[in-house]
Amino acid sequence: MQIGTSLTHFLIESQRAHKAASGDFTLLMNDIVSACKVISSYVNKGNLIGILGSAESENIQGETQKKLDVISNDVFTNTLMQGGQVAGLASEEMDDVYHLPATAQRGKYLCVYDPLDGSSNIDVNVTVGTIFSVLHAPEGVANPAEAEFLQPGTEQVAAGYCIYGPSTIMVLTTGDGVNGFTLDKDIGEFMLTHPNITIPEDTSEFAINMSNQRFWDAPVKRYIDECLIGKEGPRGRDFNMRWVASMVAEVHRILTRGGIFMYPIDSKHRERGGKLRLMYEANPMSMIVEQAGGLSITGPDRIMSLAPQKLHQRVPVILGSKNEVQRVWDYHKA
Ligand code: AHM
Ligand code: MG
């Protein structure tokens, strides 16, 4: 589709292309888009309306919630609940599955989300974002429970993120490539600015929290050591490093110019299974990255093939440019 097409028009065209489509998915996407516009507006206003800083609460992972975590979760949850296209919701910021009120209309989808990823960056005015994943709700189950949400990443109907940076950009895949839409605040519409995003297969840029170096396993140590030796070592070239500590920002950079992002297993996070969440972060980002021609693994395994064990499950994540991720995968097999 042409650059400058609105996301609304893009969704209608995609619906027309699928003759059997009922329009429900388009309506769900409209709700997601509306929620992200509201969150974007809150993030932009920040302390003009006194919403930076911590809330007096912890989420189920024992992390102190930011005021904007709580606000974003409420906006996303309420918008989708009222939209009537979901049968249930689950969020990184809620302890359990969110059951719809008895009076609410039920739809045929489930949505799982991290309403504001990269919270540690909010107060310092660095990029954050919303990550979401859409799944089919099982037929005939009025109130889906945790078990109904535990579908592997390969079952996702759609995945996306909205990044709140210098521009607000919605990146979306429905399993047919990846497209990016920039919010034109003057007219309140997301416009297609990044059609058919593909990740360069090769890269000389890695992203990892180097302060965890002493906790890593051997394959990751080997990979990063070789990048650091640069030209003089087996890689024969120098590497650059970035770490924003906002997964949305790292993935967006990788979609734009290539790179490899790693939050691998380490002895600090081994008991919890990793740092990032499978359902809210790893699966949706893996679908986007694979659809853009990249790879996404835990180290030994493809992330999207994992059978989730629990809603808030954590996993190691290594994703990005195909040839670099493949190399790390090979090091794990060696
Ligand atoms: P959050 O969902 O609580 O914001 O945590 C996830 C974030 C990711 O966006 C980012 O990659 C990672 O945590 C950064 O972790 P660290 O602070 O250990 O570098
Ligand atoms: Mg997060």
Overall description:
The chain has 2 domains: 7-194, Fructose-1,6-Bisphosphatase, subunit A, domain 1 (Fructose-1,6-Bisphosphatase, Chain A, domain 1, 2-Layer Sandwich); 205-333, D-Maltodextrin-Binding Protein, domain 2 (3-Layer(aba) Sandwich). The chain is globular and about 65 Å long. It has helices at residues 7-17, 24-45, 67-83, 146-149, 218-229, 247-257, 278-291, 322-333; strands at residues 54-58, 64-66, 86-91, 109-117, 128-136, 158-164, 168-173, 178-184, 189-194, 205-208, 240-241, 260-263, 276-277, 295-297, 314-315, 317-320. The protein contains 8 helices and 16 strands. A hairpin with a 5-residue loop joins strand 1 and strand 2. Bound molecules: 2,5-anhydro-1,6-di-O-phosphono-D-mannitol and magnesium ion. The site of magnesium ion has 4 residues, from strand 4.
Topology:
Layout: H1 7-17, H2 24-45, E1 54-58, E2 64-66, H3 67-83, E3 86-91, E4 109-117, E5 128-136, H4 146-149, E6 158-164, E7 168-173, E8 178-184, E9 189-194, E10 205-208, H5 218-229, E11 240-241, H6 247-257, E12 260-263, E13 276-277, H7 278-291, E14 295-297, E15 314-315, E16 317-320, H8 322-333
Parallel strand pairs: 3-4, 10-11, 10-12
Antiparallel strand pairs: 1-2, 4-5, 5-6, 6-7, 7-8, 8-9, 12-16, 13-15, 14-16
Bound molecules: 2,5-anhydro-1,6-di-O-phosphono-D-mannitol and magnesium ion (MG).
Cofactor: Mg(2+)
Catalytic activity: beta-D-fructose 1,6-bisphosphate + H2O = beta-D-fructose 6-phosphate + phosphate
Pathway: Carbohydrate biosynthesis
